[in-house]
Amino acid sequence: MHLELRHLRSLRAIHEQGGLARAAETLNLTQSALSHQIKALEEQAGVELFLRKTKPLRLSAAGMRLLRTAEQVLPIIESAEAEFRDVELGRVGRLHVAMECHHCFDWLLPVLDQFRRTWPEVDLDIRSSLALKALPALVRGQVDLVISSDPEDMQGIVFQPLFDYAPTMVVPASHPLVAKGFAEPKDFVTETLITYPMDRARLDVYSQFLDPAGVEPAQHRQVEQTAVALMLIASGRGVAVMPDWVLRAHAGNPELALLPLGPQGILRRLYAAVREDDLAQPYIAHVLRLARTEPVRMMRALSQGRNM
């Protein structure tokens, strides 16, 4: 017996609708086509599936057995079909994120919190353990989005600009550099530089400021948390360089002073790296929009809070 899904759907429709005419309409078939389909199935099975002398049309004992099969199989098939449709429409997918910037949690978590409310069927995760090898993980398909300030020429990978930021030096309020108004590379020679625990090449203070000048700080100390680093700085235990958007919330702290790197300051840009083939996914486009607007919203809220 050659049983097809269309046979199960037809049998179920006739049972639910109580006749060929209404079932054919539900299935978008002509009544004649549906009748021929059922007749061909009965010939294969060698038994009648319907009691044709009853009104409404009723299933025979053999037909009831086949209906139970239809009621078990069709919901599974329909669920799978719905999932595939959702994938095709971009409602279902995966968004695993890795970051090359330790401080990005401050704005990325609110972004992802908004995202998950709109896309509850997208598998969302932050792969923090991949921070030092995030871009290779993106190429291999281990993650789907990487936050980076260092775009590279990589086949199949596109870097979408998010927002600009200024690496800013934070020192104790009593530091002699406050009178000068900005920092030069040589000013770090006698300082303990406090940074996040990241690869040196991913730290703006080294890649954009100290290394080009051939300057090394007196000491280098790594600290996990921004609040702890700022507490150490306020106590005179060192200095740090952090993005301006990280420091905006602490701009009113009388124990700290913020200084640009160089007389004109340094401007950097943050990017979201994604696979080129994924750009067409609606949820990828949405998370990129959120990632561009959330930092602006945070900065505006901080500015309003200071002005109140």
From TrEMBL:
Gene source species: Paracoccus aestuariivivens
Record protein name field: HTH-type transcriptional regulator MetR
Major site of localization recorded for this protein: cytoplasm
PROSITE patterns from the UniProt entry: HTH_LYSR
Gene Ontology terms: biological process: methionine biosynthetic process
Similarity comment text for this entry: Belongs to the LysR transcriptional regulatory family.
HTH lysR-type domain sequence ranges: 3-60
Keyword terms, alphabetized: Amino-acid biosynthesis, Cytoplasm, DNA-binding, Methionine biosynthesis, Transcription, Transcription regulation
Localisation per UniProt entry: Cytoplasm
Database matches in PANTHER family: HTH-TYPE TRANSCRIPTIONAL REGULATOR YBHD (PTHR30419)
GO molecular function, one term: DNA binding
The keyword Amino-acid biosynthesis appears for this protein: yes
Protein's UniProt keywords contain Oxidoreductase: no
Pfam families given in the database record: HTH_1, LysR_substrate
Cellular component annotations (GO), alphabetically ordered: cytosol
